[in-house]
Amino acid sequence: MAINIHTSHRLLLALSAGTYLILVYLCAVWPAMVEQTAMEALPRPDHGELVARGREVYKSFNCVTCHTQQIRGDARRAYAVDDRVVVPVLEADARFGREVATRAEEYAWQDPVFMGTQRIGPDLSSTGRRLPESQWHYWHLYDPKSVSPGSVMPPHRFLFTSKEPSGDTSAYHEEVIVIAGLGVQGDRLWATPDAVALVEYILSLNREFLEVEGLGR
Ligand code: HEC
Q1: 216 φ/ψ sector (left φ>0, alpha ψ -120 to 50, else beta)
Q2: What is the number of structural domains in the chain?
Q3: Which pLDDT belongs to residue 217?
Q4: Domain carrying residue 202
Q5: pLDDT, tens only, 167-184
Q6: Residue 154 CB less than 6 A away from ligand 1
Q7: By the 8 A CB rule, do 174 and 30 touch?
Q8: Ligand 1 within 6 A of 153 CB?
Q9: Residue minimizing CA distance to atom 21 of ligand 1
């Protein structure tokens, strides 16, 4: 007796389950494996523990709601270098100080990825290079308007303390923070370990490895 797909429930079940599994493999498992192999071939940037902690602070304060870390490219002006395609920055994104658009490799090993979707504030993917002074960032976190007049970024004063830390102070920012233009000049403030880590993280956003690749920034 010939097996008829219309009458054999076993065949029907086996066929649909088989099709489902093949589709899952083709659409999800296989691409994920390809991506993973490609990522593992890339160097794993190691900025150290402090930057890793700063990344967690960045995540916990949801800085990503106002800041992107992705520079858009203008595909019409793309050109090839060896076997790679280089996409110059879209004119609207040129103010963030990069010459080439963000590439997928830059997000390798990041979890979660802070690409962001909204730019209430500027893109931060090259901030470490544009604003390399840690002091600027401490001022800015404490009172954004003090260094960036008219800023709508919320102050993060809870990341500072005026109480001199006791015991092991190595995780605190050693420098006395004097906030300019606030009428509190001379006040001694200490950046908490979270603030120190956050600033280290911001400064690590400089895409140095792109220059090593010789593909422009
Ligand atoms: C409500 C939106 C908002 C949030 C949330 C926010 N920012 Fe901002 N940020 C801004 C705006 C607007 C600016 C531009 C004005 C300025 O420089 O203060 C800015 C500027 C900056 C700059 C200077 C960047 C540059 O290249 O000029 C840094 C660094 C920064 N923010 C870091 C952070 C960090 C870290 C957090 C989380 C702790 C954060 N921001 C949260 C809105 C925000």
Answers
A1: left
A2: 2
A3: 46
A4: 49-213
A5: 776 666 655 555 555 544
A6: yes
A7: no
A8: yes
A9: 121
